[in-house]
Amino acid sequence: MLENRRILLIVSGGIAAVKVPDLIRRLRERGASVRCILTKSGAEFVTPLTLASLSGEKVYQDLFSLTDEAEMGHIRLSREADIILVAPATANIMAKMAAGLADDLATTALLATDKPVMIAPAMNVMMWTHPATQANLQTLQSREVKVVGPSAGDLACGEVGNGRMAEVPEIIAALTRFFQKSEGQGPLTGLKAIVTSGPTHEPIDPVRYIANRSSGKQGHAVATALAHMGAQVTLVSGPTHEADPDGVKVVHVETARQMMKACSDALPADIVVAAAAVADWAPAVKDQKLKKGDAAAALNLSENPDILAALAQAGPTRPKLVVGFAAETTNLIESAKAKLTKKNCDWIVANDVSKGTGVFGGDTNTVHLVTAKGVEDWPTLSKRAVAERLAERIATALNPS
Ligand code: PMT
After folding, report:
1. What is the domain range of residue 178?
2. What's the gap in Å between 298 CA and the centre of ligand 1?
3. Alpha carbon nearest to ligand 1 atom 31, residue
4. What is the pLDDT along the chain (401 residues), one digit of tens a residue?
5. What total number of domains does the chain contain?
6. Which of 126, 155, 182 is the last residue of a domain?
7. Distance from the CA of 246 to the CA of which of 101, 159, 264, 285 falls in 20 to 30 A?
């Protein structure tokens, strides 16, 4: 997807600039051509000679260079690219971009371009979370600037938090997705996904049932996000008030056993995301409405099949990536880790559903992505944003380009 793509790479001044040589190498390995603009502060971290050697092209640094302007004016420089990538993007360059400042070659090219722009922010966590930076980010996003990262972790300044520049494979994946999208394809095109969503209703008698408070918002959002990335999605949904997502095959079920059957029927698949709140038990169903005194008979429970565990069982039909959710009210991470192993999943999305969190039925979710590699804490996000971020991660895991 990156073959013959022309990337104008603007390197601004942050310690993450040391990752740029590797980025250039990987882009060129994939057939892209890379032309660099190096800002004055960027040159404190990486030399023009390094960038020129790796890109095989002249590195542009000055706005008022007669030779450069004669050879390749800054307007042409900004237009002769398929995309402009700013990596690392410091708080300073983001602020200048948001304000429309043009006081050096990099910012002038960014203002003069008619091409898409992607930024890979990198900075100290306080700078990243500062309302000014967040406001600039929103301004840039409202102008369709694409953003990759930052991620959380140890920062060069010694602090820990959000602000690390996305790793090179993530940037490559984001560029790949951008070009795929521009060609009407998604990173998950050609892959099949099964998503479970909503509660199950387990009948007690013709008029009563056992249920839970799941609304289906999270699971339906995951189905939508995967479909937007090109996956062929079967959404197996318990009873909800959510509309069927566009472009998704929806199988409506009521009970856990029906959900199990619908999921098995949808195999083979490449991806499973189990977001449904499946009832663990089902009563022995009575044909006639129970009388008041029949309380004991009402709760004659038997265990339901574990759909997630069944789909994740090793074997020829095991999907490539099986993602479960864990809804817990105590020991969130420990319980999620135990479920990861017990159910043979690849990832678990753990969410605290204690009273007061409003996760069941609400519009936001605070999740932790638990994998064999460790635990990633995500900030509180809308369920749609959780779904989009999860879909991005799935795409990166399945297309590790
Ligand atoms: O629907 P919303 O209102 O938007 O709320 C979202 C949610 C809280 C329901 C969702 O984010 C969530 O956490 N879903 C999983 C709920 C759950 O049942 O968790 P669990 O910890 O009991 O189950 C662990 C995993 O096993 C889940 O992926 C579940 O789908 C799966 N499971 C459980 C039991 C069973 N019999 N079969 C299953 O497949």
Report:
1. 6-182
2. 24
3. 308
4. 899 999 999 999 999 999 999 999 999 999 999 999 999 999 999 999 999 999 999 999 988 776 677 666 778 888 899 999 999 999 999 999 999 999 999 999 999 999 999 999 999 999 999 999 999 999 999 999 999 989 877 777 777 777 899 999 999 989 998 998 888 788 899 999 999 999 999 999 999 999 999 999 999 999 999 998 999 999 999 999 999 998 999 999 999 999 999 999 999 999 999 999 999 999 998 899 999 888 887 778 999 999 999 999 989 889 999 999 999 999 999 999 999 999 999 999 999 999 889 999 999 999 999 999 999 999 889 999 999 999 999 999 997 55
5. 2
6. 182
7. 264
256 lines ligand 1 (CB under 6 A): yes
Same-domain status, 80 and 201 = no
Any atom of ligand 1 within 6 Å of the Cβ of 259: no
- Given 182, 208, 229, the domain boundary residue is 182
Catalytic residue chosen out of the listed positions 36, 157, 263, 345? 157
Please tell me if the CB atom of residue 218 comes closer than 6 angstroms to any atom of ligand 1. yes
User: How many alpha carbons lie under 13 Å from residue 116 in its C-beta half-sphere?
Assistant: 16
Residues 90 and 117 in one domain: yes
Kindly report the pTM of this predicted structure. Answer: 0.68
Are 349 and 273 part of one and the same domain?
yes
Asked whether residue 50 is domain-assigned, the answer is: yes
> Which residues contact residue 311 at a Cβ distance below 8 angstroms, ignoring those fewer than 6 apart?
194, 263, 267, 272, 274, 318, 319, 322
Residue 46, both tokens: 């990486």
Q: Are residues 30 and 132 both part of a single domain?
A: yes
Pocket test for ligand 1, best of 212, 215, 278 (most atoms within 8 A of CB): 278
- Measuring CA to CA, which residue among 188, 198, 193, 191 is closest to residue 325? 198
Q: Specify the pairing of strand 364-365 against strand 381-382.
A: antiparallel
Whole-number Å distance between alpha carbons of 85 and 3:
16
Q: What is the CATH number of the domain that holds 136?
A: 3.40.50.1950
Residue 311 falls inside a structural domain: yes
Residue nearest ligand 1's atom 26 by CA:
308
Q: Helix 20-29 crosses helix 168-182 at what angle (to 10 degrees)?
A: 40
263 assigned to active site? no
Dist. CA 219 → ligand 1 center (Å): 9
